[in-house]
Write a structure and sequence with these properties.
heterodimer, A: mainly alpha, 2 strands, globular, B: mainly alpha, 19 helices, about 75% helix, about 5% strand
């Protein structure tokens, strides 16, 4: 048993410690401090997320995993910063939104922080136990966050759906991990995945990875595991949806990407046809189903399903480009989907209910130009049109996929892109080109949301026009990857 | 390679102006004046290019190349290059851009700042398309020019604007996404063959393909370009877009956006895939001729003036494609000069119809008639530009048409004959339009005024253009000729017969 060395090991997991500490502090303050200043919990949450981000930026934990369990190297740090960033934006959007909906208690902010902790565990795990722990922590936090509005029926339905689906996928994952242990004799990811000699039962190994892929497939809503997505996205408080669609998906994807990168060629050869099929199904189903939606959150939910299809395309090409395309894509996706849901979260039909019907977005471009502008740019980015981060992301994914010789998949991807253009244009048309509706749209557009708006807008455009620094950073991460 | 990035400034000045226009949200007049100033400055900058050099010193007959590092890890560079063809086209772009601002002075009254934002941003896209020689950069500009047009038609258009603009966007973006796939494939194939990752046109020309692959890639590029041109049977978005667009939108659409398709075919698709281009050129020829006849035929039946001119535009551009598919110096010079001519006359027609619409609130031929008696100055201009577009000798379109037909005749005589008959169609629908609008019985419309000074300011430069290119096309043809001599593929195919 190795002993914890001070301060090296503590610093290596400082990101996780700060989040855990932050979450607990928020709970404690909420429970024990009477007559709190209004924004105390919010400030605490922001503080812990930002300090964690700084920790992840500055402290290199080294190439070796923390006690063979948690990657603290560049790969994990990249994603940790990304999670902290989306959580930061999500918190900024939450502040006024949660205040209006009367859910801005300690549990709301505390659980958001713990969700980020779960994300970082899933993305960084090099041991199946940590992966499971992170997966469950993530799910647990979201079960409650989605059900935050206790008297809201759709919210409850959404939470129940997410709970059941989450339980099932958690069961899949646990069983998959058990199978993994049974067929390799280890719970250590790098050893079990890469070392073929360890595999006692190839069938058991494939079954185990099949189960794990299904479990992760639920979380990243790959078709056919996507059915919960629209209901949950619609029912959850919008800033929570924003965090769910960006953070939790990227986290599980980062874990999946690590599993695939560690896999031996034998496993990879078995995984590719499955991933190919999942990608094609996800791309087409997502974009076709999105065509028929009339509520914006459902529409964005299906579109985010399609977006995951592009991500799987990028994953398939990792043996060619080492994951450059897919990691860039995630960064772009985090920004643009956060921006789209964030813009929606600042609009309410009444103080209690979201502005959800697409009909009610008529003329929004003139009554609320800033929200409409952010939503438009994020939608254009999701559609993959320049000069946005989403365009560069799609460009890199398609390039990687063609390089890896998946021509048919690339054609399917383009077909899906054409379909989804129609979807996104539909929203833009409603906002700018239909005559204004006589409907009082209140907006919770405070300073925090404005800050998030400005940062996201800047990020989406900047990564679309000057993507080189980000690409160079990701390339450096890939070359020095230690997994 | 040049000390001042003049081309870069020319391309991005409208975009800066677009952002600047948003500052003048409160003051419409200041916004219009600002946008006009920006476009006139840009026009002056383009004219200064004429003064700098019109005889090429660089290899490939480029007049000017500006090359900056951009996304080097992906092999993408910011490369703008100017040759004679681009020079004339960016001159047309900035001139029509300034006119588009003037044309909208009275017509656009809602969301003025946003209108000028989209208008100027689109001009940056178009200028970029005409100058970019890095394929990625070209693609970027190609997409950017479509998005503002989507807003222009959708927000400031007429009754069925949403249908028209969504159709426009879906057609063009679908085409360009297919092109994106081909562009990436080309890049990857080139990297496999030579080991260099690049999107530079001049390098990518030295890629070799098997014929089926080359045909596929050419097909994907040509599809995107054919949608923009638009070639029959991909043209159906154009009449709708034109009919519903505000006048400035129609001017840019007919005058510039359609030209980007032809230009891209000439600059990228043909030189990159010469064997496929030769293979497909009979098809292009037939599609061009079919377009002439079919669109001319449909134009004969149109009631809406804008729709009529839109179809005539398809018909004219059919002839330009015929010239392109023949690929000899005479026909190509004809096609190139015809792009400029068509840009001038068709824009003028749309501007005139827009002015009429502002006065009478109708564009239906059945509700017009006898305009010559009511608004003689307008009618005079209308007659003049219609005759120019019919190809009256001495006016600009004649020069282009005759060059295309002569060039076509040397290689494919039957096509030239068919093209000549096709031109007769244009006379038919042109004269029908004149008869029904200018002559006939006039409804008593006492309240409409003739052209104002602002409107004359718009039309007179266009008249000068028509007369200049009609009577003295020499200098322009010379510029085009030198550029064409440099326009060869890397593989020595497609060498131009004189």
């Amino acid at each position: 048993m190795t002993v914890l060395s001070w301060p090296k090991d503590i610093l290596a997991v400082l990101f996780q410690l700060l989040l855990a500490g932050g979450g607990i502090t928020v709970f404690a303050v909420g429970a024990f401090v009477k007559n709190k200043p209004k924004s105390l919990l919010f400030s605490l949450a922001i503080g812990s997320v930002l300090s964690a981000a700084v920790a992840a930026l500055l402290i290199d934990g080294g190439r070796m995993p923390f006690f063979q369990m948690l990657d603290v190297g560049v790969y994990a740090r990249f994603f940790n910063v990304l999670f902290a960033l989306v959580a930061f934006f999500s918190l900024l959007f939450s502040h006024q939104h949660a205040g209006l909906r009367q859910v801005a208690g300690d549990e709301f902010y505390g659980l958001m922080i713990l969700a980020v902790l779960g994300m970082s565990l899933v993305a960084g795990a090099t041991h199946w136990l940590i992966f499971f722990l992170g997966f469950e922590l993530l799910s647990l936090a979201f079960y409650i966050l989605i059900a935050m509005r206790r008297d809201d029926l759709p919210g409850n339905e959404a939470a129940l759906k997410y709970l059941i689906m989450g339980m099932v996928s958690g069961g899949f994952l646990a069983f998959g991990i058990a199978m993994f242990y049974a067929s390799t004799g280890t719970l250590d990811m790098p050893i079990g995945l890469a070392d073929l000699k360890k595999v006692v039962s190839p069938t058991g190994m494939l079954l185990s990875l099949g189960l794990i892929l299904s479990a992760t497939g639920f979380k990243i809503s790959l078709v056919p595991f996507h059915l919960w997505t629209p209901d949950v996205y619609q029912g959850a408080p919008t800033p929570v949806t924003a965090l769910l669609t960006t953070g939790s998906k990227i986290a599980v994807f980062a874990g999946l990407l690590r599993i695939l990168m560690l896999s031996s060629n034998w496993l990879w050869a078995h995984a590719t046809p499955v991933l190919w099929t999942l990608a094609a199904a996800t791309l087409l189903t997502g974009s076709i189903t999105a065509l028929a939606q009339t509520r914006i959150k459902r529409l964005l939910a299906y579109s985010s399903v399609a977006q995951m299809g592009y991500a799987v395309m990028g994953v398939l090409a990792t043996r060619e480009d080492g994951g450059l395309a897919v990691m860039f894509y995630f960064t772009a996706y985090a920004l643009m989907d956060m921006g789209a849901f964030g813009a929606i979260s600042t609009l309410c039909a009444s103080p209690e209910s979201d502005l959800d019907e697409l009909e009610n977005y008529r003329g929004l471009g003139y009554s609320h130009p800033w929200q409409a502008a952010l939503l438009t740019i994020c939608l254009l980015s999701l559609a993959g049109l320049p000069p946005t981060a989403g365009f560069i992301g799609k460009f890199m994914v398609f390039k990687a996929v063609l390089q890896a010789q998946y021509i048919v998949l690339a054609v399917i991807g383009i077909a899906s892109a054409i379909l989804s253009i129609f979807v996104y244009l539909k929203v833009i048309v409603v906002m700018f080109m239909r005559s204004q509706k006589d409907m009082a749209v209140t907006s919770g557009f405070g300073v925090e949301a404005r800050l998030a708006f400005a940062l996201i807008l800047f990020g989406v455009i900047w990564a679309g026009v000057f993507p080189s620094p980000l690409q160079a950073l990701i390339s450096r991460i890939i070359t020095s990857i230690s997994i | 390679m040049n000390s001042t990035p003049l081309l870069g400034i020319i391309v991005f000045l409208p975009l800066m102006g677009a952002l600047g226009a948003l500052v003048y949200r409160q003051n419409e007049r200041a916004c219009r004046l600002f946008a006009l100033t920006v476009m006139l400055t840009d026009l002056v900058l383009v004219l200064s290019l004429f003064a700098l050099n019109t005889s090429p010193q660089l290899a490939g007959n480029w007049l000017r190349v500006e090359d900056f590092s951009w996304m080097d890890s992906l092999g993408i560079r910011f490369t703008l290059a100017l040759d004679g063809i681009s020079l004339l086209l960016i001159l047309l772009t900035t001139a029509l851009g300034a006119l588009a601002v003037l044309v909208s002075w009275r017509e656009i009254t809602d969301h003025v700042a946003a209108f000028h934002f989209f208008l100027l941003a689109m001009l940056t896209g178009i200028l970029g398309v005409f100058l970019a020689t890095d394929l990625f950069l070209f693609y970027l500009f190609w997409e950017i020019q479509a998005i503002p047009m989507f807003f222009l038609i959708g927000i400031w258009g007429h009754e069925r604007r949403i249908y028209a603009t969504v159709k426009f966007a879906l057609f063009t973006i679908s085409g360009s996404l297919v092109m994106l796939l081909a562009l990436l494939s080309l890049h990857i194939i080139h990297a496999r063959q030579t080991g260099e990752t690049t999107f530079a046109l001049l390098q990518l020309m030295h890629t070799s393909f098997s014929l089926p692959l080359e045909l596929t890639l050419f097909g994907a590029f040509a599809l995107a370009f054919a949608i923009k041109i638009p070639l029959i049977p991909l043209h159906t978005w154009l009449p709708d877009a034109h009919t519903e667009a505000p006048t400035a939108g129609s001017v840019i659409l007919a005058g510039l956006l359609l030209k980007t398709g032809v230009y891209a075919l000439l600059r990228f698709a043909f030189p990159l895939f010469p064997a496929a281009a030769q293979f497909f050129s009979p098809l292009l020829l037939v599609l061009g001729l079919t377009g002439m006849f079919y669109a001319g035929w449909i134009a004969l039946a149109q009631e809406d003036l804008k729709r009529l001119v839109a179809y005539s535009s398809i018909s004219h551009i059919g002839l330009i494609v015929v010239g392109l598919s023949v690929w000899n110096v005479t026909a190509l010079s004809g096609s190139m000069i015809q792009m400029i001519n068509h840009g001038i006359t068709t824009s003028a027609m749309f501007i005139l119809i827009g002015m009429l619409d502002e006065r009478l609130h109708t564009r239906k031929l059945s509700e017009l008639g006898g305009l010559w008696k009511i608004i003689p100055v307008w009618s005079g201009f209308f007659l003049f530009f219609t005759l120019a577009s019919l190809g009256l000798p001495g006016l600009n379109n004649f020069v282009g048409e005759i060059l295309i037909l002569v060039g076509t005749f040397t290689d494919r005589p039957w096509a030239a004959v068919a093209g000549f008959i096709g031109l007769l169609w244009t006379v038919l629908y042109g004269l029908r339009m004149l008869r029904k609008s200018l002559w006939g019985n006039a409804d008593p419309r006492p309240d409409i005024a003739d052209l104002t000074n602002r409107e004359l300011t718009i039309l007179i430069p266009l008249c000068i253009g028509v007369l200049w290119l009609g009577l003295h096309p020499g200098p322009a043809l010379e510029i085009i000729g030198t550029a064409l001599a440099g326009l060869n593929s890397g593989k020595g195919l497609l060498t131009l017969a004189p």
